[in-house]
Amino acid sequence: MKKVYQMEIKRAFQGLSYRITLLIGCGISLCHVIRCGIPHYRYLRSLGGVYKGLTHPVSASELWMGGNTYNIEGFVFYAILPLLAVFPYGQSYYEDVKGGFIRQIYSREQRSSYLKAKYLAVFLSGGTAVIIPLLVNWLGTLLFVPNLLAESALQSNNITYESLWKHLFFTKPGIYLGIFLALTFVFAGIYATMALSVSFFSEWKIFVYTFPFFIQMGIYTITMLMGKLEFSNVYFLVPGFGITSVGVLAGHLIIGFCLTALLFYILGKKEDIL
């Protein structure tokens, strides 16, 4: 049982797809640092002491890629989050079945052990593939932008009195960021494992890859037409946008886990792969 977990984790994190995903994600992150972080540093340097005490610089928690919704790199990153989560290892069950590798596994390991190990490996690979670029961007931004407390009076962010954990954003931004990174990790894991469930219903690998992305964009489009963007995780996962509804967050998580963990395990136990 332990061996199958080790094997799946190794396959997930040592594969070429995982490395390519990190390169893409970190590339987007570094583009943002170059386009926004460095120019802001130069701007602060140009002020010198002329406006000392008369102006409040934008903080790193507001300028980094997840600090607002108006930087193009951040929007692109959160929009393609399902693709970044699935690409490392989300399609692996489909490939194991089509390639016959799963028969070798089932001849040596219990089916339930393999399914649990597969789910865990896909979940972790998807979550880390998304979180690492965000951390790279945060640390890169800190190199050029002061880590000051955000100023609510300046309205340089979208955090309002309705936002969850709003007091942490203005007083303990590190804790606030940690909460959102944890949530982003979970959502990335859900999208990655959603591809596992889709594998039972499609003969095309491209559909397995892209289905979670189209689900997210479908939700985004509907919420945009309704004028309720706060219901879309393209926005509410952005720390600088914030979450205004516990119910929406809980609904996404409950439905997500039902469509991934439960569905994958139930269908995997019943599937005839011989």
TrEMBL record:
Listed transmembrane segments: 20-41, 75-94, 115-139, 174-194, 206-226, 246-267
Keyword set, alphabetical order: Membrane, Transmembrane, Transmembrane helix
The keyword Transmembrane helix belongs to this UniProt entry's keyword annotation: yes
Protein name as catalogued: ABC-2 family transporter protein
Organism (species): Suipraeoptans intestinalis
